[in-house]
Fold fructose-bisphosphatase.
Amino acid sequence: VSIFFRHPIMDYKTGPSNPTSGKQSFSVAAGFAVGVLCATAFVAARSVTNYVDVAVPTATAIATSQVQNRAPTIAHNAGAPSFAMTVESYVPSSLPAEQTHSVALPATFGAVVLLVSSLVYKFFKPARQPLPNPAPLNAVVVPAERFVRLVTGMADARTSVAMMAVASAKKQIGIKSPVFNETCDQTGITLSRFMLEVARANPDLQELESVFSSIQTACKTIAKLVKRSAIDGMTGLQAGGGAVNVQGEEQKKLDVITNDVLKRALKFTGRMGVIASEEEDVPVEVDNTVDESYGKDVLVEESGGKYISVFDPLDGSSNVDAGIPVGTIFGIFAEDDDCKLADTFFDDKTDMSEAMKGCLRSTLKPGNSLVAAGYALYSSATHFVFTLGAGVNGFTLDESIGEFILTHPNIRVPPRGKIYSINEANRLNWDKPMQEYIERLANGSNRGKKVYTSRYIGSMVGDVHRTLLYGGVFGYPADTKNVNGKLRLLYEAAPMSFLIEQAGGKSTTGLVRVMDINPKNVHQRVPLVMGGSDEIDELVELYTQ
């Protein structure tokens, strides 16, 4: 009875139901029926004499047991002394043979009917229909490869509980975040120790530790150069003017110096295969050949360069003479055979060497292939912010000990802020969706019904750093003067988009996700707007309309 008439389990699932429960119920019912059938046949086969021998003692045992079990009740019941007699009066001391056969035959027939009925029920019962999902469950959007399960039950006699969980059908593999069981009160968690713990938690990233060690050394050096630029005569244009990079931009003295500092720091790690920079015309292949003397006495494993680095050594360098914050942006790809270039990419580049083609194959990858990305901000303090694909962490340089200290763990961008950072002087040159979007932010007619304020430094690193910490929107959209935007995809837009997305925000051109764009050349430009998830969704909706 408990099998077929029990209350249904409150089981809500968006995935397929488990078919084993019906088989379990049938197995129990069939086993019970067979047991009754065998027991009845055994009783029917016994003689009347044997039955008479055990009838009276059984009745007496039953009566005695029942009297003992009712002992607490007898103490409060005036009619209790007659209970044992009443029980014994209804237990027969013997049964005639013909009566025994008359009882066994219907019992045997009943057992057979029960077995047959269970078989019929098994094959003709209606299919189990899942209960309708409650409203809170319907509000949950679950990817196809996942399922939601809601289970209700009783925690105790008076408290009911309900649990809802989203589970994945396949194991997700990612970066393990470092764990710090204790810290030094005087130094805190340094960047060096942070990367050591990352390498211990993720053995595959051990080589990345040396890369970050070199990057932080280069950033400390650049911070010193920027701070002393006016004193050491490193302001102004390179070679007194006239020196331009591949983008046609006049190079500052610090552009050339900082590019050399960062390029050499990365080269000396022995882990770089290719380096691409804003200040370099083309990607540069790194020679990782070790000195011949190493092979005589020491067994050396030559890696050949596992990573590709792309960087802007001094973003916002046009502001450096005025003491406005500037920064360094970098992105790191893994060296692999996953080339994203079209088969016809090199058809019109017949004069290009095979070595250069190999460099481009390694370098021209979308942002979703990045292994790590980050920036250093040289301002009132020197900040180092980066991601390895498992959240964003910020460090501040303690100049007294020469170490970056963890000061902003697990940075998160709120879905909506109250600041927009954009060059409004170009407003009339934007397309209509962008104009309407900024107008909504300024007058408070946006989805969040907030009136935004405008804050614009003109240095991407500084503006994005504020957006990460305070929320809001940063953008450099396309306009009639720069129809493809102004920011470079490979070493500016993609690394910064990786950071924003890892912090919970979004990044778009207005029509497509920046991280999904395949670069066509090293210095390709794209429009860019990034910020909180709600803010960017509103912009995309305007472009879609």
User: Anything to note?
Assistant: Residues 419-543 form a domain with the D-Maltodextrin-Binding Protein; domain 2 fold (CATH 3.40.190.80). The radius of gyration is 38 Å. The first strand starts at residue 11 and ends at 13.
